[in-house]
Specification:
Blueprint lengths: L2 E5 L12 E4 L3 E3 L4 H4 L2 H5 L3 E3 L5 H4 L2 H5 L9 E5 L1 H10 L21 E5 L6 E3 L2 E3 L16
Parallel strand pairs: 3-4, 4-5, 5-6
Antiparallel strand pairs: 1-2, 2-3, 7-8
């Protein structure tokens, strides 16, 4: 396993990026600091993103990773809980702030992202790795993303 730490902060600065890790150049864990930490060619190699939760410092770069995919024949698998998926569609990928990259675009191009639903405590496999999702609501929010 080759692990690259692209960011591990809740802030963005010249010295650090929001949370993102890259495994074997193709699997991202979170998407807070992907674009600032990778070249365009390195971004294009990502085919899987595991989202730990919906806070902005973990999802921020999803729109910028997904947009170039619409012009290709590939798709990125987004592994996350239904709660995270719903929050993405409500807050960012909602056709107001940004395109819904989980839906095909009107010109017939495939969706950039494919949702792969996961549940806390239920392991799944990504390539040669077994992943165990945890319930990662690590600090309380003022309101639910679905309210």
């Amino acid at each position: 396993m080759r692990l690259r730490i692209l960011g591990g902060h809740q802030i963005e600065s010249a010295e650090g990026r929001a949370t993102a890790f890259l495994i074997d150049e193709t699997i991202a864990i979170d998407a807070g600091g992907l674009t600032g930490g990778l070249t365009v060619d390195e971004q294009a190699a990502i085919d899987t993103i595991l989202l730990t939760h919906y806070h902005f410092d973990h999802i921020r770069d999803l729109p910028f990773i997904g947009l170039p995919v619409l012009e290709s024949s590939r798709q990125i698998a987004i592994h996350c809980t239904q709660l995270v998926y719903d929050a993405l569609l409500k807050s960012i990928l909602n056709e107001v702030v940004w395109l819904n990259l989980f839906r095909p675009v009107p010109d017939g191009a495939s969706a950039a992202f494919a949702h792969r639903s996961v549940s806390a405590g239920t392991p799944f496999t990504v390539k040669q790795y077994e992943v165990l999702p945890l319930d990662n609501r690590h600090h309380p929010c003022r309101s639910s993303p679905t309210s």
